[in-house]
Amino acid sequence: MFEKVLIANRGEIALRVLRACRELGVRTVVVHSSADADSLPVRLADETVRIGPAASRQSYLNAAAIVEAARQTGAQAVHPGYGFLSEDADFAEICAENGLTFVGPSPQVMAALADKSTARELMSEAGLPLPPGSVRTLPTAAEALEVAAGIGYPVIIKAAAGGGGRGMSVVRSAVELPRAYARTRAAAQVAFGDDRVYVERYLTDARHVEVQVLCDAHGNGIHLGTRDCSVQRRHQKLIEEAPAPALRPATLDALAETALRGALAVGFTGAGTFEFLVDAAEECHFLEINCRIQVEHPVTELITGLDLVHEQLHIAAGTPLRWRQEQIRPRGVAIEARINVEDPDRDFAPAPGRLDRFRPPGGPFTRVDTHGHP
After folding, report:
1. Among 143, 204, 278, 335, which has the highest number of CB atoms less than 10 A from its own CB?
2. What is the pLDDT of residues 89-106, one digit of tens each?
3. pTM assigned to the model
4. How far apart are the C-alpha atoms of 80 and 89, rounded to whole Å?
5. How would you class 322 by CB atoms within 10 Å of its CB: exposed for 0-12, middle for 13-18, buried for 19 or more?
6. Measured between alpha carbons, how far is 366 from 374 in angstroms, rounded to an integer?
7. What is the pLDDT of residues 254-310, one digit of tens each?
8. Opening angle at CA 120, ends 117 and 122, nearest 5
9. Which residues are known catalytic residues?
10. Which residues contact 148 (CB under 8 A, 6 or more apart)?
11. Going from the N-terminus, what domains does the chain have, and what CATH number goes with each?
């Protein structure tokens, strides 16, 4: 196990990783912007390094500053949490070049899976079912029209480099498609620096179900069951439940086994999430892979008894997977509700500010993951 880990994030996930490190006897370095100098993770860390001003681009997205902080403090590994640089293959490669272990998949695997078009192609080769549509990107609107005509409307145009609910347009007729195609490519270029898009059938009443997997660098892997993330607003998850309810046991088993097969086929390592759409007939369609810990990971921890951040750290340190599939026996049900600071009078726009009153819930079977405090 590592002696010291740098946590390249802020807020709730920084505190979550810090707690796991402390439980494992690992010293922590928390990097922070000037705006977060008095935050709870900074207060509790063994060491801290200010890496820039409040703007994320100059701090939490500043790969050079983070790597330099790790070198100066003698950290052996970098845990990126979620968001920011957690799925940035270039950052993972920079860490490796500087003798740092990135807690996550290899840069090569991450780069392949971050590109949704490439990920679809790899998963198709591994035998995972895809929604009807193009496996590769479509460079012209004419090709998009041809694919849409073949699979039927409605369709959804997606950015190959998209994420976070951005870079998607639903199209319900051929008349709408050329303009939506151009708009989606332009938005993708601005948001991701990559205007490639693909088209797939839009499944109107499908459920959003995901599978948690853990894989080590020795060819071992397990799944930890399913989560339902269908309750969303603007493609952002609000409520998550584990295991996914109201699906046949055979469907849940097929989802989990399919996800694990895909992970092992591409040499995935660490904690990952395979996302699927499940239609009314309980047919499953692969969506994407997240190469990081998820916001909703606590519901999986509550029904399995595993600490996913502990397992991430053990895997990154080179330890063979500590669990076998037959040892994973989910019990009960867990539901997570995300509490977002938003303004409902402005279409739920983010509204950050100071917490004047903070009274988290408590009682039996209640878990609160937060960096907020009175």
Report:
1. 278
2. 999 999 999 999 999 999
3. 0.94
4. 12
5. middle
6. 19
7. 999 999 999 999 999 999 999 999 999 999 999 999 999 999 999 999 999 999 999
8. 110
9. 292
10. 155, 171, 174, 177, 199
11. 4-103 (3.40.50.20), 132-201 (3.30.1490.20), 207-338 (3.30.470.20)
